[in-house]
Amino acid sequence: MIFTPRDPGFEQRTRESFLGQGFMHTLGAEMSKLTPGHCELEIGFTDALAQQHGFFHGGVIASLADVSGGYAAFSLLPADRTNVTVEFKLNLLLPAQGAKLIATATVLRCGRTLTVCRSDVFAVAGDDSQAFCATALATYMAVDLRYQGSEVK
Amino acid sequence: MIFTPRDPGFEQRTRESFLGQGFMHTLGAEMSKLTPGHCELEIGFTDALAQQHGFFHGGVIASLADVSGGYAAFSLLPADRTNVTVEFKLNLLLPAQGAKLIATATVLRCGRTLTVCRSDVFAVAGDDSQAFCATALATYMAVDLRYQGSEVK
Amino acid sequence: MIFTPRDPGFEQRTRESFLGQGFMHTLGAEMSKLTPGHCELEIGFTDALAQQHGFFHGGVIASLADVSGGYAAFSLLPADRTNVTVEFKLNLLLPAQGAKLIATATVLRCGRTLTVCRSDVFAVAGDDSQAFCATALATYMAVDLRYQGSEVK
Amino acid sequence: MIFTPRDPGFEQRTRESFLGQGFMHTLGAEMSKLTPGHCELEIGFTDALAQQHGFFHGGVIASLADVSGGYAAFSLLPADRTNVTVEFKLNLLLPAQGAKLIATATVLRCGRTLTVCRSDVFAVAGDDSQAFCATALATYMAVDLRYQGSEVK
Fold first, then answer.
1. If you average pLDDT over residues C52-71, what whole number do you get?
2. So what's the ipTM on this one?
3. Domain locations along chain D
4. CB–CB of B88 and A89 under 8 A?
5. For a Cys staple, C122 with which of B9, B104, C6, C130, CB 3.0–4.6 Å?
């Protein structure tokens, strides 16, 4: 789907917001692609991100899925708005085993208040083969930039 | 609800599995309580776990909710089984602002193959007041200890 | 949890809205209890509501869970607002076998725009024993009474 | 995605199971397409399926989404298995206004025990224009044909 951003400066604004998330630094996540309504994030594997069998931890997968959808939605906001996650649902399809994780999110529906996104997560092996390892469906709410209140306000 | 563990040594086995998750070390998570079918995890706040407004990141909340439910389910498994997350859904209710997060999970239904858990997450302020900031509903699948395969096998 | 209704006439308004749903007539659903932030619905079993094994169909369970949460949320709205379902997630715990289904919903968080509810569904046998057969977690959005637009506006 | 059915007689078996659901008769649902791993269902609008504003009721949408996914999964089962819904999550994107509803489901991952499906729901107007009004993500479990037990067993 093709979306028209309401803020021509969406890319800089979106990337700055992403860089402001301490937890994304902790995970080593990078925003590898951003177009209006679409966002791709990547994380390289380290033991610090593993579960007990040496795969990417489900919490890492969930974080990447949630944040990729959040910034796909954020890219369509007017310049005086930010957003928060209302809820998301994640299905794990395969063990996330590989050198890196890629989450690709797209906006399914962008309303004035709520935006719904889908995020598909792939585990990329050393030979660049990709396994579709998880998918998420998420809802985000647009809020005022000075928002400090409830995520379900 | 009162559950009877199938493995009398469930506590040691559950805690050992939790300690084997590199990502839980990264988050600084601790297992503060464990009884059959119930699990409580805690994480102290650091900037490394924050989103852009200085609250606990949604991905941290999701991780804690998922893992607390996973070990509530794990505590009821026979000694020759482990489990994997099939899926979970998280609703964020309030900004998770505070000195620490506590996730309290309980088993709603324990079947032979699948277990369903609910996990409630609280943000604890410096004065020990608690805010109910998120809730999750999750499904886990029991698998063989040597399991290396699909999470939806 | 104790909630204070914003509209003293909430009960009549809530029950009238429920009676306006043709599909609830089709299911034979009744609103058996309503207090601020809480709603209980019931449906008696008929073959017209069954799946292929003669149990209540998952779609009936989902409908009852969704609507009970919707009216638990509706009961707390001001008189000039109505609401729509944003999303819900349902876990089926046991086959829903019995003479009737009861869904009990409670508001977990009531914001200005969004309300989050939990709904537990019980299958009631002829001897009045209850089996906890499903649970749902749902989000509702308050909208203007004249609302005809997007559910994620 | 292309799937190979494990039972060459999958189509007849799948359609017979669908016809055995009393609730699908009540809704007037028809299976308009079936190929291995894909299923499309349709329902025509009547007031008996409406919510209070005259649109298709969310419970009808949920039922169609769940069942379309269930039979997409069912089509890939061996002949001696059936399946049950473990859980599903539905996001409502737009009011479901129109002459009929179409739900198109596809299998995302087919494991030995669990199958994960996505179902997209469209409201079709009198002029055949389609509005993408809902999407669901669901998990199904394969069980023995004689299964009468827990949906999360």
1. 97
2. 0.95
3. 10-145
4. yes
5. C130
